[in-house]
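Contributing new complexes? Match this layout with calcium ion.
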Amino acid sequence: MRVLVIEDEADLLASLAKALREEGYAVDTAADGEEGLYKAQSWDYDALVLDVMLPRLDGWRVLERLRQSKKTPVLMLTARDAARDRVRGLDSGADDYMVKPFDLDELFARLRALIRRAAGRSNSLIAIGALAIDTAARRVTCGGHPIALTAREYALVEFLALHRGEVVTRSILYEHLFDEDDNTLSNLLDVHVSNLRKKLGSGSITTHRGHGYSIE
Ligand code: CA
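Output block (do not edit by hand):
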């Protein structure tokens, strides 16, 4: 899953990006509203974390303009006790909001919920044959046995599972699993898929030659 964080407080931006990457997200960042809007319009992010008070273009304007073309789930960050902000945020098409300072674990939980809802799922557990993916705990079991996955392997299997039955193209996987700072070779995706097959069983992921991958 790839998220864009738009925040002008450099320390907060850096620590949020780092924490999200540790959770297995691909993360792009923007330090002002204009840059944020440009990136949000240019890529299909799985979610946006959007601060309200931003230089150049504030969070409301970013949201308003983004909504003219995209439905990307947006989690707004508002100042403490700005009750009117919250109402305004939800009215203008934000999907959720958090008041600063916020708890990081709660932000992760809300982001996961936003991404699940956008994929049309209300349940955090995805069961596919012997495979069970707990998107809240970010754990995978196969036949009841826990499988140890790297953050990126987990991200890959979760993305395919959220789109189960669909062929997900390589370019979509690259767009959603890697961020702008990733200088990865194109064959890396194959390495992850091959490692996942070793861990989850050779039939777990289907290759559609020339198209992409799927989980059925
Ligand atoms: Ca700010």
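Reviewers usually confirm one structural detail per submission. For this one: Residues 8-9, 51, 53-54 surround calcium ion (CB under 6 Å).
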